Amino acid sequence: MQKLAMKSGKWLPEFVLLYLNYNVFDMNATIETNPLLDRLPKHLKQFIKPQDYSDYTPINQAVWRYVMRKNVDYLSKVAHKSYLDGLKKTGIEVDNIPSMYGMNRILTDIGWAAVAVDGFIPPNAFMEFQAYNVLVIASDIRQLEHIEYTPAPDIIHEGAGHAPIIANPEYAEYLRRFGEIGCKAISSDKDYQMYEAIRLLSIVKEAEDTPQATIDAAEKAVEDLQNNMGELSEMAQIRNLHWWTVEYGLIGTVENPKIYGAGLLSSIGESAYCMTDKVKKIPYDLSAANQNFDITKLQPQLYVTPSFSHLSLVLEEFANKMALRTGGLSGIEKLIESNALGTIELSTGLQVSGVFTKVISHEGKPIYIQTTGKTALASREKELVGHGKLTHAEGFGSPIGKLKGINLAIEDMSPKDLTAYNITEGNTVKLEFEGDITVEGEIITGSRNLQGEIILIRMNNCTVTHGETILFQPEWGVYDMAVGKKLVSAFSGPADVNSFDLITHLPSSTTIKAKHSAERDDLESLYHTIRSIRETKDLETSLAPVLSKLKAAHANDWLLSIEIAELLIDRNEPQLLEEVLIYLENLKQRRPEVAHLISGGLDLILTKENV
């Protein structure tokens, strides 16, 4: 493969042949995967879709090439040094849209993998992929009309934005850790509504010929939700942190920042705009968690981190405030408000996963918790044998805390203590907990953790009450009582991902593909001709007929004319080149909205500063 020259005059090392060109893509080629993908749980695999490379058209390839050439030229001046280094390490080519299979082969060397998905996926799932060191890539590519920016995630944003930076080990660990913590953040019901609304808006804005009324309605739905979110959930806050770092982060000093956020790295418009005084630069700290964003507009402010290690410090500072680490009454209340599958963990390590619907508190502490519907019990993220959703199909309830008048918690009792308090197999016992919770029944058996602490007591003929209120009665069957003096953690999702069927919450909308028409197909064929001439280094085929047909049938297209001009410079055909330049100058007058794009493309080729 031909080496590619950088603007500085130095040569990039020759890339390994990772990607298959549009013209020679073999649908029967052997697909090489990445061992990390084999570790993914099935509920994440539901979001993965095949990347059909043959779907990328010559125009798609030209869009990728233009953006990458512009980006590498400009970003070499303003991006963090990891960006250009990462392009080499991850094998991202300037001239070809990356193949997911090739990317996986090269990402293996830096401990990551990549998967293709259909647009936005739910935030919890997105972050959980990161926790597995898997980069999620929306495999669609923006249309030529949206070459500078699209609200929809696409392969330019993901492949050219995210992938190069993760080659930096410190940043990669931040991304993994962010996913690990972020996927445990508790959402509100409105968070999922917002996700669906943003996903739909990104789709209709990127799609061709969407009626303005449809776009207006989608924008209003997002705006209405933004104005009525109430108190920000953990997921909303950590999503903000993700936006202001991973997507739109700057690094360095406020006076001299560099770009590392993928949203900026992949936008030839906003990467330049963000460096102007029109965008306020703010030192990055925990306050960014409460700063909302609008995906449809240029960002009015950006946060600057002094280093990648500082990102991790802020992340841990935020995690310390999450229910994941604080537990307690507020943790269980967040799960109840979310109305979604979540988990609490007790001080013994017992984990209860289900939809939490009730908590009884006493002196600011939870003393009884209740789930409704299928529930599973686990320890160390592994479901306890005999305590899955079939056993606890109707829900699970249990007291939490210490026995009344006894300083020693059940979990801390020695065998002698347990005997003294009659808490042994075959005995009928009456356990009175602080907060007026009473459990009375015949002990069948107990389960212990690896440290020897009792984590679960099973009873027959059991009655559980809170004052005069009956919480469980013998007619309901065997009673399992959780043991734990404190609720130490609460987080989103199940403790054991295999306990529940998580093949749910698939997006209600799908991305809209480009329309086919005779005019579009004809234009694609012209792009294909020019691409083929460039790749085969064909110096014989005349470019005049292509230019003539382009001017006659596709007078609004601008990008192909730039590619023709590039070939004419290499061929040293000044007369036809002058004709193209005059045509492009006229096009700038007719279409002022793309004049800067034309100028930018010509700057690259006329000054020989192309990549």
Automatic annotation (TrEMBL):
CDD domains: arom_aa_hydroxylase. PROSITE patterns: BH4_AAA_HYDROXYL_2. Fe cation binds at H157, H162, E247. It comes from the Bacteria. The keyword Metal-binding applies. The keyword Metal-binding applies. Signal peptide: none annotated. Residues 1-368 form the Biopterin-dependent aromatic amino acid hydroxylase family profile domain. Its EC number is 1.14.16.1. Keywords: Iron, Metal-binding, Monooxygenase, Oxidoreductase. InterPro entries: ArAA_hydroxylase, ArAA_hydroxylase_sf, Aro-AA_hydroxylase_C_sf, Aromatic-AA_hydroxylase_C. Pfam families: Biopterin_H. Its cofactor is Fe(2+). GO terms for molecular function: iron ion binding; phenylalanine 4-monooxygenase activity. NCBIfam families: PRK14056.1. Belongs to the biopterin-dependent aromatic amino acid hydroxylase family. This is Phenylalanine-4-hydroxylase-Long. The lineage of its organism: Bacteria, Pseudomonadati, Bacteroidota, Flavobacteriia, Flavobacteriales.
